[in-house]
Design goal:
This protein has 334 residues and is mainly beta. The protein is 6% helix and 42% strand.
């Protein structure tokens, strides 16, 4: 396979995303029944074996997305590994705590790293369809979702059953009804008390709002662009706005007027999410050169070890770079 064929296979166009409408136990519960879940790179924590996965291979983290109309919720749940969101469209009310008692509204471009061992859910507010990208740490994203007991209880009677192994039985698709012994047990009151809670003030340090993005010292001297270090470890060489131990990090590049970043390599796995504008990515690996044009919303899974350059094609472009470490090293210009 040529390098061009390989990178074409590692590109997921926003306009070609295939949603899953029964990925999770709450997918038919009234109030959550109109949501779309997307597995872009890796299966993430999808519970349905019928969920479409665009790129199955992962390298330490998964990229997904959630899309939903106003008033539709993703129900209270927790994760064992990092969960980060980048809002792409619309406004989301994120709520958290054992009963969802705290909340905050996130808008386009806002980024949040949600602490583990914390129940969280979200709904779209306002008038527009909402869409946000998600980053889940770990190749298996921690082994699945931990659901609030009320979510599992409310799901009864709609043809979906969550089994103890984390898989979903869908009787409307022909699956057999699981026995009581096969079902996922509900968390006990004692187990619920082991989960953390955060006030709104305590959650604010985990949010980088787009209006508050602050540029950092650029990795590429002599190039007129802006670089942002949004989430990563406080021990990293970058001054990340959100300082959290997630095993992944998020940076971003703002390019204009056909500005190009030089050809460079990173030791960490990286995925590009082209948030706005058009960005040409040149890829060099093993003596071959190929290129791909990223348009708004496209996701590109950069081959591990490849050298890349980014060039703004027209106007202004903004691209997120998801890295497979919360302490990434500086890139090597080649």
């Amino acid at each position: 396979m040529s390098l061009q064929q390989e990178i074409n296979n590692q590109l997921v166009r926003y306009m070609e995303l295939i949603p899953g409408t029964s990925a999770f136990i709450d997918a038919r519960t009234p109030g959550s029944h109109l949501k779309d879940n997307f597995c872009i790179i890796g299966a993430g924590v999808a519970e349905s074996s019928r969920q479409h996965v665009h790129i199955r291979d992962t390298a330490g983290f998964n990229i997904g997305a959630a899309g939903q109309p106003p008033g539709i919720k993703n129900s209270l749940h927790s994760h064992r590994t990092a969960e980060l969101f980048v809002v792409f469209k619309g406004q989301f009310r994120l709520y958290w705590g054992n009963e969802g008692e705290y909340d905050a509204v996130l808008s386009k471009g806002d980024v949040i790293s949600i602490p583990t061992n914390l129940f969280r859910g979200f709904e779209v507010v306002g008038r527009d369809y909402g869409f946000m990208y998600s980053v889940l740490g770990g190749d298996d994203s921690g082994g699945g979702v931990i659901w609030h007991p009320g979510v599992i209880t409310d799901s009864q009677g709609h043809g979906l059953y969550l089994k103890a192994d984390g898989s979903l039985a869908d009787t409307q698709a022909g699956d057999a009804v699981p026995t009581q012994e096969e079902l996922m047990p509900l968390l006990t009151e004692q187990e619920m008390q082991q989960f953390d809670t955060y006030t709104v003030e305590q959650m604010l340090p985990f949010v980088a709002m787009s209006k508050d993005y602050r540029p950092v010292v650029n990795d590429f001297a002599g190039v007129d662009y802006q670089q942002y270090a949004l989430t990563g470890s406080p021990l990293a060489g970058y001054d990340f706005q959100v300082k959290s131990h997630d095993d992944v990090s998020i940076q971003a590049y703002k390019l204009a007027n056909q500005t190009a970043l030089p050809l460079h390599k990173r030791k960490e796995k990286q995925v590009l999410i082209n948030f706005s504008g058009d960005t040409e990515v040149e890829v060099v690996q093993n003596g071959e050169t190929a290129s791909v044009l990223l348009t708004t919303g496209d996701v590109f899974n950069v081959p591990l070890g490849a050298a890349i350059s980014l060039k703004n094609v027209r106007g202004e472009s903004f691209t997120y770079c998801i890295l497979g470490s919360d302490q990434p090293e500086k890139p090597e210009v080649v």
